[in-house]
């Protein structure tokens, strides 16, 4: 293995890099001394090129198919770009201001870049383009100011570790399709459109920061699989993350301070979030549309609108979550399903949960407290609660309009003095059973507009009034311990069913659709 020295001096045999490449044998090393070399390089043999001092190459670089080349300590400036079809390693290099749109092109080849920088002028649309089954690894490398995308990839494998993609005019990374990409300890910052966009690809992102973009932070669609752990996505002028028709798994990550949504999930996306935080978004912090989503041990707090919005036949499960401090309802469920378990909703400037348009809400071991408005408000929807706690109520605890509901084994406590009932049913059908009610200067139950209710084994002896029944409503009670009279109008009925045989009409009423739905 020989070392060929290139220097612009009449005292040296090799005054051009091209001359040294032509005469070098495979495996040789070419040492390039100080200077500016205005020439293009066509390399078709295994070589190592390294610079000593300040070495600038002004010209195109072409690495031929199945050729291994190592290049170190070189600056490529104002040339025709680097075109890689072979196997190339760049270390401590700068690629800048190339006179074509794509500064580095890898096609049918492989590239390893370590401690490099790729810097653009307005002429440079792309910093790195990877395609056609290529494999690229970027380590400690920076891309800046490209017009369309700092990195664009298609049908390839791409790994970025401890890299920075900064202030591009459009995208940071654009993975078009069939891209398998891994990002670790990277920063993507300041792009005018989606900072990372992927379609029909497989992406894994760990310990990355995506922030301060003028568009969306991360945008995924068309069957992309995306896994993210320990990342932070924040401070975008649009939503921090938008996902359509894709699969998403996120853990230990933070979404914050966006002018749009924290996360928007739509068009049959399947997503799981574990131990994540969503905070300080202008729109709904989590917006779920026609998708299946699970949130576990997540915190959704301090939003300027809704905490979680669930619409259009979405199916959502929330387990051990904390939802607090929103200016509108903490959770809105419209024509969708929500299962809420072992969670807490608290400290809101409006209500807790709003269900509408045939929504189905199931709550277990959940606490709702200290809200300015309704704890739960459902309209033309279904509600089922088990072992829940409703406390520090100002307005109605549970409001049901044209709804079906069951409240079982639940606890009502610290209801402030109010004309509002803890549970209000309007043109609804429901059951309350085995509940406990603390003392409160307000009615426990209000029925209106042909409501039908069964209340079983619920102690309401400490409330101001057990129930107000009016407007052709019917209440069947069993096992209560209140000795005061029930308040009702002449068109309504309050019937005690303990110790008596029910007639056929009562039996039909009490086995109505609640049984079927439950």
UniProtKB/TrEMBL annotation:
Keyword annotations from UniProtKB, A to Z: Repeat
UniProt cross-references to Gene3D superfamilies, sorted A to Z: Single-stranded right-handed beta-helix, Pectin lyase-like
Domain Right handed beta helix: from-to ranges: 152-291
PANTHER family, per the entry: F-BOX ONLY PROTEIN, F-BOX ONLY PROTEIN 10
Protein name: Right-handed parallel beta-helix repeat-containing protein
Organism (species): Lysinibacillus irui
Species classification: Bacteria, Bacillati, Bacillota, Bacilli, Bacillales
């Amino acid at each position: 293995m020989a070392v060929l020295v290139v220097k612009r001096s009449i005292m040296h045999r090799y005054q051009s890099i091209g001359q040294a490449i032509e005469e070098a044998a495979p495996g040789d090393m070419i040492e390039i001394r100080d200077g500016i070399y205005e020439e293009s390089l066509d390399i078709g043999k295994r070589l190592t090129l390294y610079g000593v001092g300040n070495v600038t190459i002004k010209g195109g670089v072409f690495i031929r198919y199945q050729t291994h080349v190592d290049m170190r300590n070189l600056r490529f400036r104002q040339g025709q770009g680097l075109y890689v079809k072979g196997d190339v390693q760049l270390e401590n290099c700068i690629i800048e201001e190339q006179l074509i749109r794509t500064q580095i092109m890898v096609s049918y080849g492989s590239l390893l870049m370590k401690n490099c920088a790729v810097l653009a002028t307005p002429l440079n649309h792309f910093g790195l383009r990877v395609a056609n089954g290529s494999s690229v690894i970027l380590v400690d490398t920076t891309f800046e100011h490209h017009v369309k995308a700092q990195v664009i990839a298609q049908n390839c494998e791409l790994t970025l570790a401890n890299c920075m993609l900064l202030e591009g005019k459009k995208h940071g990374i654009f993975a078009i399709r069939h891209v398998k990409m891994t990002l670790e300890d990277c920063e993507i910052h300041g792009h005018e459109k989606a900072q990372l966009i992927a379609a029909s690809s497989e992406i894994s992102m760990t310990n990355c920061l995506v922030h301060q973009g003028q568009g969306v932070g991360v945008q995924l669609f068309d069957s992309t699989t995306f896994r993210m752990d320990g990342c932070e996505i924040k401070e975008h002028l649009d939503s921090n993350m938008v996902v359509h028709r894709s699969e998403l798994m996120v853990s230990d990550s933070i979404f914050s301070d966006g002018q749009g949504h924290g996360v928007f999930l739509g068009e049959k996306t399947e997503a799981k979030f574990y131990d994540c935080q969503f905070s300080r978004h202008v729109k709904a912090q989590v917006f779920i549309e026609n998708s299946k989503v699970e949130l576990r041990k997540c915190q959704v707090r301090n939003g300027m609108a809704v905490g979680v919005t669930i619409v259009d036949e979405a199916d959502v499960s929330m387990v051990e979550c904390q939802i607090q401090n929103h200016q509108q309802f903490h959770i809105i469920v419209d024509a969708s399903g929500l299962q809420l378990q072992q969670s807490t909703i608290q400290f809101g400037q409006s209500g807790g949960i709003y269900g509408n348009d045939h929504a189905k809400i199931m709550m277990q071991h959940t606490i709702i407290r200290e809200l300015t408005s309704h704890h739960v408000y459902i309209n033309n929807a279904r509600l089922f609660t088990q072992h829940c706690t409703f406390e520090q109520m100002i307005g109605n605890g549970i409001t049901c309009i044209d709804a079906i509901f069951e409240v079982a084994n639940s606890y009502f406590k610290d209801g402030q003095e109010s004309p509002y009932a803890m549970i209000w049913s309007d043109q609804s059908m429901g059951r309350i059973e085995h509940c406990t009610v603390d003392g409160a200067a307000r009615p426990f139950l209000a029925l209106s507009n042909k409501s039908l209710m069964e209340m079983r084994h619920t102690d309401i002896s400490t409330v101001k009034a057990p129930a107000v029944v009016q407007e052709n409503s019917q209440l069947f009670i069993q096992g209560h311990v209140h000795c005061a009279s029930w308040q009702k109008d002449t068109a309504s009925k309050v019937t005690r069913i303990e110790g008596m045989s029910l007639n056929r009409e009562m039996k039909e009423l009490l086995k109505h659709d609640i049984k079927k739905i439950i």
